[in-house]
Amino acid sequence: MTTTRTEPHVAGAGSAYRARISAELRSFFRQRESVVFTLVFPVVLLVLFGLILGGRSEVTPGVSFTQYFVAGMIAAGVLASSFQNLAIMIPIERDTGLLKRLRGTPMPKSAYFIGKVVQVIVVCVVEIVLLLVVGMLLFDVSLPATPTKWLVFIGVVLLGTASCTLLGIAFSSVPKSGRGAPAMVTPIALILQFISGVFFVFTLLPAWLQIVASLFPLKWMTQGMRYVFLPDSAKAAEAAGEWELGTIFLVLGAWTVVGLALCALTFRWRSRTDG
């Protein structure tokens, strides 16, 4: 009897997860604004900045700033696909009453979050592929040359995506309304990019600003991507003169744990007006 009761429940849960994943993917790719802002905008920035700055300076001998910039933009693409995407979209869904309606259905609450996570993974993969293709075609960026670099690449993407996804879900409770979410989240994402070694060589920033940037995941994601895509000589341009791979994974892992705790403490299904 126990087996008979459990199997329909498991099957029903599986259907709910698949339905929610499908709904999240359809919702994202049908919204032109989301596709343009999340997927296309980082590629446009890469092309514009790359063409403007290409060949004008070297970070270290044999490493152009454009190559340095591409590595940073890949990390920024992960941030846009996860933190920025969720921190803007979830408040909008909360304001429209979607979260309230979903909570009132038999759907497991976890299905909503699984749907968001899968959506982020798909969007993140598409974003990275687009940026890599542009980087290789226009700016002489090469794919990782060793198994170790591939492993670091996968690890940084996974931990970076996990931490930024959880932080995006947690931060979604901060905006007072869905309408105000883009105005609050976008400047934060841009500031993090400017101080984390995306648009500027990190060591050219004031020392105090380097310390501030080091508190957040994006700085370590950009550093990890530079290890993956730049030659070993480029580590001379890092603040410590080393890649600090252990610290990269330690910080990203710590932020993943912090993000999970913040999600559990702060996530709201109802808007502020609903109480």
Automatic annotation (TrEMBL):
Cell compartments where the protein resides: Cell membrane; Membrane
Limits of the ABC transmembrane type-2 domain: 33-270
One Gene Ontology cellular component annotation held by this UniProt entry: ATP-binding cassette (ABC) transporter complex
GO terms, biological process: response to antibiotic
Membrane-topology annotation of the record: Multi-pass membrane protein
Top-rank lineage group of the source organism: Bacteria
Pfam family name, one: ABC2_membrane
MF term (GO), any: ABC-type transporter activity
Keyword annotations: Antibiotic resistance, Cell membrane, Membrane, Transmembrane, Transmembrane helix, Transport
InterPro entries: ABC2_TM, ABC2_TM_bact-type, ABC_2_transport, Nod_factor_ABC_transporter
Transmembrane annotation, as ranges: 35-53, 65-92, 113-138, 150-171, 183-209, 248-267
PANTHER family per record: NODULATION PROTEIN J (PTHR43229)
Entry similarity comment: Belongs to the ABC-2 integral membrane protein family.
Protein name per UniProt: Transport permease protein
